[in-house]
Amino acid sequence: MKIRTICVPKVCVQFNQPMLSEKITTHLVKLKQKKYREEFGEFVVEGLKGVEEALHYGEVVLILIEGNRRDEPEFVGMIKKAETKQVDVEFLGRKDIGPIKTTDTFPGVLAVCERMDVSPDDVINGKPIIFLDRIKDPGNLGTIIRTADWFGIQNIILSEESVDPYNEKVVRSSMGSMFRTKIFESGHGVNTLESLKKQGYTIIALTMNGKPIKMLKSSPKTVYVFGSESHGVSQDVLNVCQEKISIEGRGDAESLNVAVSVGIVLSYYMIHAL
Amino acid sequence: MKIRTICVPKVCVQFNQPMLSEKITTHLVKLKQKKYREEFGEFVVEGLKGVEEALHYGEVVLILIEGNRRDEPEFVGMIKKAETKQVDVEFLGRKDIGPIKTTDTFPGVLAVCERMDVSPDDVINGKPIIFLDRIKDPGNLGTIIRTADWFGIQNIILSEESVDPYNEKVVRSSMGSMFRTKIFESGHGVNTLESLKKQGYTIIALTMNGKPIKMLKSSPKTVYVFGSESHGVSQDVLNVCQEKISIEGRGDAESLNVAVSVGIVLSYYMIHAL
């Protein structure tokens, strides 16, 4: 059941004692679980910046604002914008916040959004693609999405066994960038890469034993493959890759954080693509 | 009071029912707070990798291992190494873990370490220095330390109002790298930078309106200044900086994660310093 169908009438905006209906609270609590995000085709974004980006680039179903902050200028502006876009706004009483918030300190606003429906074709547009092999850490995935967006790269593929991109921590750490990127969740990463190779993409993996990254001469039609921090790029994925590159270090650290690695590779791509 | 003085005799290693003394439990719980970490001059590192690095590069006072995992090969090896280094090892019963652990899932081992005593002179060795202006997020600081270590840069200065580098989340996300870096906590960042300038260092800040980073021609005697994500480099610090550089983006993301930015800047330093 979609949240649209359980929305209470607009009149609740006038309540002196802001209070969410139990049905909506239950729905929002359910959205903390992946299976319900999939079932309802919805997810939650929390915080002013994220909700603003969602309103601008995403499909917002419902906005919930902390009742006692409704007169703060940024929320007044948001309510206005929501009206223009015909998005419902409701207000939260203090007691409503506890069960539904996804952060320790509730930032005053959250929105329920429709999941993006991304097909393989959506990420194939002749521009670089980031392929993430079994990335499990939501903070890392969010930061990677944000970094890709910074460098103007919108195409992201997640292999099987990856963290859910609609997990609230992913959404939060993407800082709104996830509404500007296209994330295709592949059920079989190797098959997806094979298919991209057939379409003329060069598949390059970041590994510990590749060519130095400064030798990277990349064309836009490139797939950059990154593995998980604990296991690196898996062997079956590596078998599909045509090139291996490495970020040279000089110290004793065992590895770089994967989001930092993505940033470094994309900054080199930027230079060579210019 | 240091934990050394409250350590129970070695015989507890033989207990069939592993159990921590209340004094040690209380001490470890206190170490979750900055004021006690400062008072005792100690901090906690959790997890196999971190404790291994601590044993190798740091000053470990006490190691605590989950009792029912003491026969696992990695812990047997660790106990042996601790003996060689004359570090006390104790074992934890299931009930001991709850109050002292700093992660949801206890990774089986933690160590109490002595804080490093870093003076300004320790970070002035003619090599690059990373200066962090009011970085508050512990995960970001830990990742920056790890990234610096990867690129062989050991000198880090924190301005006033920064997160405590001995915070458990910083320690954890540094992945052991904090034992190989020297972190000087400056009480007055601007004064520290002025003094470095007098000693011939070039002070370069990463900002949103600097020269493109590919124009970076850096010498080893450089201080790279990074600001917090929410506020950037503060004006008083900027006034001391001689150059401003930027990482060029192409998308709509408002900013890059600060740890990602450090990684990109240091990878450029590496290329130009070779």
Blueprint of the fold:
The structure is a homodimer of 274-residue chains.
Chain A lengths: L21 H9 L3 H7 L1 E5 L1 H10 L2 E7 L6 H12 L3 E5 L1 H7 L8 E6 L14 E5 L4 H13 L4 E4 L9 H6 L8 E4 L3 H10 L3 E11 L9 E6 L7 H4 L4 E4 L11 H16 L1
Parallel strand pairs in A: 2-3, 5-6, 5-9, 6-7, 8-9, 8-10
Antiparallel strand pairs in A: 1-4, 2-4
Number of helices of chain A: 10
* SSE run of chain A: HHEHEHEHEEHEHEHEEHEH
Structural class estimated from helices and strands of chain A: alpha/beta
Structure summary, number of beta strands of chain A: 10
**How many structurally independent domains of chain A?**
2
CATH topology of the largest domain in chain A: Alpha/beta knot
Helix content of chain A: 25-40%
> How would you classify the quaternary structure?
homodimer
| Main beta-sheet annotation of chain A | 6 strands, parallel
Compute the average pLDDT of chain A: 90
Strand content of chain A: 15-25%
Strand order of the largest sheet of chain A: 7-6-5-9-8-10
| Poorly predicted sequence stretches spanning 5 or more consecutive residues of chain A | 8-16
Most residues in contact, chain pair and counts: A-B, 39 and 39 residues
Explain this structure:
Two copies of one chain form a homodimer. Chain A is α/β, with parallel strands linked by helices and 274 residues long. Chain A folds into two domains: 3-114, Ribosomal protein L30/S12 (60s Ribosomal Protein L30, Chain: A, 2-Layer Sandwich), CATH 3.30.1330; 120-273, SPOUT methyltransferase, trefoil knot domain (Alpha/beta knot), CATH 3.40.1280. Chain A has helices spanning 22-30, 34-40, 48-57, 73-84, 94-100, 138-150, 168-173, 189-198, 235-238, 258-273, and strands at 42-46, 60-66, 88-92, 109-114, 129-133, 155-158, 182-185, 202-212, 222-227, 243-246. A six-stranded parallel sheet of chain A has the order 7-6-5-9-8-10. In chain A, strands 1-4-2-3 form a four-stranded mixed sheet. The longest helix of chain A is centred in the last third of the chain and has 16 residues, at 258-273. Chain A binds chain B through residues 49, 139, 143, 146-154, 175-177, 180, 213-214, 247-257, 259-264, 267-268, 270-271, and chain B through 49, 139, 143, 146-154, 175-177, 180, 213-214, 247-257, 259-264, 267-268, 270-271.
